[in-house]
Structure to design on (109 residues):
């Protein structure tokens, strides 16, 4: 028996040319709700609320680290401590950017 890969005219496909749509579009893959209806809905609703909150918290953490380092430099505090603030800012900024990227990929409509 031949395996079906879903390609319109693949030699390994069991579909004939008459079964393929005339516009050449492939059938849509199964959605997450078709795989596990309860979990997909719960996950989607949870992520709609949690992910934006995480993005905002990450951005606020970046700002807190930035201002902490700037205030420490302005007051004339220990340069090592100011450097530590700036190193944390770099890591927090990377995390915030990744969260924002995931947010934009999930909610592009």
């Amino acid at each position: 028996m031949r395996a079906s890969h879903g390609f319109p005219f693949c030699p390994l496909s069991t579909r004939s040319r008459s079964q393929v749509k005339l516009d050449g579009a492939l059938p849509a893959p199964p959605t997450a709700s078709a795989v596990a209806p309860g979990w997909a809905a719960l996950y989607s609703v949870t992520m709609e609320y949690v992910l934006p909150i995480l993005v905002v918290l990450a951005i606020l953490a970046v700002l807190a680290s930035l201002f902490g380092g700037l205030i420490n430099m302005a007051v004339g505090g220990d340069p090592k401590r100011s450097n530590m603030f700036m190193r944390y800012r770099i890591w927090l900024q990377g995390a915030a950017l990744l969260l924002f990227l995931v947010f934009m990929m999930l909610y592009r409509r």
